[in-house]
Amino acid sequence: PPSLSSRATIMTLRRSCVIAATAVAVASLGETSAFSLAPSMPAAKLSLGNGRATAGRISPLRMALSTGEARTAQSKDLMKYSDSVYTTQRRKTRTVQCGDVPIGSEHPIALQTMTTAMTTDVQGSIDQVMRCADAGAQLVRLTVQGQREADAASRIKEGLLKKGYTTPLVADIHFAPKIAMQVAEAFDKIRINPGNFADGRKSFKEISYDEPGAYQAELDYIEETFTPLVLKCKELGRAMRIGTNHGSLSARTLSYYGDTPAGMVESAFEFARICQKHDYHNFLFSMKASNPKVMVAAYRLLAAEMYDLGWDYPLHLGVTEAGEGEDGRMKSAIGIGSLLQDGLGDTIRVSLTEDPWLELDPSKKLKAIADAQRDTIWTPTPTWREESRDFKTFTQRIGQLPVQKEADPVDVRNVLHRDGSVISAVTLAQLGNPDKLYYDLGCKTAVGMPFKDLATSDSIFLRTVPAASAAKERLALKRLQEVGVGVLAPAAELVANPIANAIAVFSLEHVAKKETTMPEGALRMAITVRGDESDEQLAALKGSDAVMLFIETPKGLSRIHSTRRVMNYLKMNDIDTPVIHHIAFADESKDELVLTTGSQVGCSLVDGNGDGVMVESSSITDLEFLRLTSFGLLQGSRMRNIKTEYVSCPSCGRTLFDLQLVTAEISEATGHLPGVTVAIMGCIVNGPGEMADADFGYVGGAPGKIDLYVGKEVVRKAIPSARACDELIELIKEYDRWVEKPEEAVVPV
Question: Rounded distance, CA 739 to CA 45, Å?
Answer without folding.
Answer: 35
